[in-house]
Amino acid sequence: MSNIISIGTFDPPNVMTQEESIAIARSLFGKSFPDIDRLLSIFDNSLVQRRHFAMPIEWYSQPHSLQERNDLFIKLATEYGIEAINACLSSSEFLAGDVPSEEIDAIFFVSTTGMATPSIEARIMNRMSFSPRTRRIPIWGLGCAGGVAGIALADAYCQANPRAKVILIALELCSLTFQLSDLSKSNLVGVSLFADGVTCVLVAGEESKIPLSAGHPYRPKIRSSRTTLMPNSEGIMGWDVKDDGLYVVFSRNIPVVIRGWLKDNIEEYLTSEDLSLGDIRHFVAHPGGRKILEAYQDSLNIPEAMTRISRAVLAEHGNMSSPSVVYVLREFMLESIGQGEIGLMTALGPGFSSELLLLEWQ
C-alpha cells in the first residue's frame, strides 16, 4: 500500500464573502432575471461563506476572450502550483525535514479549467530544481473527480515503483471560466458555488524513505481504489466549449443521481474489500454543494457529523472542483486518527463518474 505523506495548499489572493458575491450577481444579472431575488436564495442556501479567486472582483464584470482567460490560467497556474509544491514538500505539520524536489520521481497534474502545451508541470519544472528525468503525467477533463482519481493514479505508479516519491498537483481556476453573458440557471448556480484552489499531495511507495513529523504518527495508506462510469450520462456535468470560453454544464439532477446510483456502487466496492458501510469511520467527501452532501447523507444513511469537515471546507472555500476533496483530506490528516481506522474518499465528476479511494490509517 502506498502512503499519503504530506499535503500542501495555496489559496489565491482575492477573497470574496458570499454577501459580496450576492451583490455582484444582482448587479450583473438583475436585469436579465425578473425573479432575481428568488434565484439569489441559491447563494444563501449554499453553505458557502467565502471563497478565493485568482483575479480582483472588477475583472469578472468585463467580457474576456478564451485566449485572455487561458493565458491567465497558464501564468497563474504555474505560479500557484509552485507555491503548493513548496508548501507540501516543506510542511512542518507532516514532515520532519524538507523533501528535495530533485527526489520526486513523477508529477501528476490534474486540472479542467485551462489548457496548456507544454503542460503546466513542465513549466513548473523549469522554475524549480526537479530532475529533468522526472516523469510528467498531465490529466485533463476529470473535473470534481480529479483529486481522488489523481491520488489513485499516483498510488498505481508507486505500486509499480515501491521506492518512488510522487506528487499530485490538483489545480483549478474555476473563476477564470466565468461567463458574463451566460444567462442560464446552471451558470448562476456555478457563480454561487465555484472558486479557485490549489493542492499538492506527496504519495510515497512502501520502500521510500521520507522523514516524518512525530506530530501525526498515523498516516493514511491507500488500500485500493475504484472508478465507475455511469453509461450515457455525458450531459450531467462538464463544459460546453464555445468561442469565448468554457460554459458550465451542471445538472440540477445530480443529487437525485447520487441518491439513486451511488449507494449500490459504494456497497459493492466495500463488499469486494470485505467491508461494509459500518466499517467506515471517516467519510472524506468532495464538498460539491449543500445538496450534494445531503444526498450523500441520505443515500448512505450516515449522520451529518460525518460530513463535518467537508462542510467546513465548503464554507471556507466553496467548490474548487478537483482540489476540494484534497483540502478535506488534509484536515482529516491533521486530526488524531488511530491505528487501523478506515476512511472512504469519494468524488463525482464528468462522465458521469464516481471515484472511490479506500484509506487505512497506519
Which stretches are poorly predicted, pLDDT < 50 over at least 5 residues? none
CATH architecture of the largest domain: 3-Layer(aba) Sandwich
**Assembly type of the shown chains?**
single chain
User: Averaging pLDDT over every residue, what do you get?
Assistant: 91
Distance between the termini: 10 Å
Query: CATH H-level name of the largest domain... which superfamily?
Result: Thiolase/Chalcone synthase
What general form does the structure show?
globular
Order of helices and strands: EEHHHEHEHEHEHEEEEHEHHHEE
Task: Give a description of the structure.
By secondary structure, the chain is of the alpha+beta class. The protein folds into two domains: 2-204, Thiolase/Chalcone synthase (Peroxisomal Thiolase, Chain A, domain 1); 220-361, Peroxisomal Thiolase, Chain A, domain 1, CATH 3.40.47.10. The protein contains eleven helices and 13 strands. A hairpin with a 2-residue loop joins strand 9 (237-242) and strand 10. Helix 8 (254-272) crosses helix 9 and helix 10 (308-317) crosses helix 11. It is globular. The N and C termini lie close together (10 Å). 47% of the residues are buried. The mean pLDDT is 91.
